[in-house]
Amino acid sequence: MDQIHLVDLGAAHAEIADEIRAGFDRVLARTAFVGGEEVAAFEREYAAFGGVAHCVGVANGTDAVELALRAAGVTAGDEVVLPANTFIATAGATARLGAVPVLVDCLPDSYLIDPDAALDAIGPDTRAVVPVHLYGQPAPAAELAAALPSHVRVVEDAAQSQGASRNGRTPGQGGIAATSFYPGKNLGAYGDAGAVLTDDPELAATVRSLANHGSTVKYRHDLAGFNSRLDGLQAVVLRAKLARLAGWNQARRDAAARYGELLAGLAADGRVVPPTAAEGNEHVWHLYVVRVPGADRDAVVGKLNAAGIGAAIHYPTPVHLTPAFARLGLGPGSFPQAERAAEEILSLPLHPHLTADQQARVVDALTGALG
Ligand SMILES: *Cc1c(COP(=O)(O)O)cnc(C)c1O
């Protein structure tokens, strides 16, 4: 039986293979390996696509989060409020710059940061709040920004939400956002890559300088920075995929709607809780995450995998229960919604090249696995 992949990078490559080869040849001819014309063109094109004035390409999404936090003025010892249920990098980037992650719980239906909990967590040392647009669905970043005291900035983690918007607003508009082009993201490179998005020319310039050894003029170093730059070969891949991203995101939305129909029966008797899109949100379905309350979730994932279906868990352990962040001293029970979600969720295959037949097979296998 054919595998049904969680993400199908091969199918995406097949669509763009000729363009990629031609683009790689251009880069090789120019030997423009770090930065260069392809990178500059991608930055312009992604800024236009994302509805922001500036896109600064960097080496990966984790660096992008750290650089955005730094540009927003976060320094060692500051507190940064972020959700307990996110990919570890949101907390890792915060910790790497010496700031203190202050975790808060999520909402049970959307899995997005609980805005009231975020506001309650603000103290005199808080410098930033990081809403994560988890699974492709925008968290209420603008609403949070409006409610925060003036010493706290919103820094969006948009690693999973390329092309998403909330009430017409895209990540980074009027503020600053970080994104990742890890291969499996909605817009993925063929290696590591990321970007910072903002309308603010000063924030963009700070990120660009920090990411290039604190320098804007060669060998003049104004800031103690580091090296986190986008390379020309990745920019070729990103440009080819960006030209298709709107269509690919639409294919994801169509597939999500089809899952909604296929899962209606299981949802009606409460065995599966399908994901929802909050009012005002243009969701880009990076992941299709369902809950299976009352079932042995790990056994269900095991049965799906045995049937050749690439189901997975995003993420099995909330940040506070990882060994890396045990030092925060937040034991089990600290964030009931995040912990319950981590026990009940699983991600079904979802990507732009998934077929209706494959989706029917996934739901049949899920029905069987639930017994
Ligand atoms: C992927 C991801 C990152 C980190 O991106 P990398 O490019 O892997 O460093 C950060 N935050 C979230 C929510 C992510 O999904």
Average pLDDT number: 97
**What characterizes the major β-sheet?**
7 strands, mixed
The CATH topology name of the largest domain reads Aspartate Aminotransferase, domain 2
- How would you sum up the global shape? globular
**Which oligomeric form is depicted?**
single chain
Secondary-structure arrangement, i.e. CATH architecture of the largest domain: 3-Layer(aba) Sandwich
Radius of gyration: 20 Å
Overall tally of domains: 2
CATH level-four homologous superfamily name of the largest domain: Type I PLP-dependent aspartate aminotransferase-like (Major domain)
State the total count of DSSP E strands: 13
Number of helices: 12
| Distinct small-molecule ligands in the complex | pyridoxal-5'-phosphate
CATH hierarchy, class of the largest domain: Alpha Beta
Describe the structure.
The protein has 371 residues and is an alpha/beta fold. The longest helix has 31 residues. 40% of the residues lie in helices and 14% in strands. It folds into two domains: 232 residues, Type I PLP-dependent aspartate aminotransferase-like (Major domain) (Aspartate Aminotransferase, domain 2, 3-Layer(aba) Sandwich), CATH 3.40.640.10; 125 residues, Alpha-Beta Complex (Aspartate Aminotransferase, domain 1), CATH 3.90.1150. It has a seven-stranded mixed beta sheet with strand order 1-8-7-5-4-2-3, sandwiched between helices. A two-stranded antiparallel sheet has the order 6-11. The mean pLDDT is 97. It has twelve helices and 13 strands. Helix 4 links the parallel strand 2 and strand 3. Pyridoxal-5'-phosphate (PLP) binds next to helix 3 and helix 4. The site of pyridoxal-5'-phosphate has 16 residues, from helix 3 and helix 4.
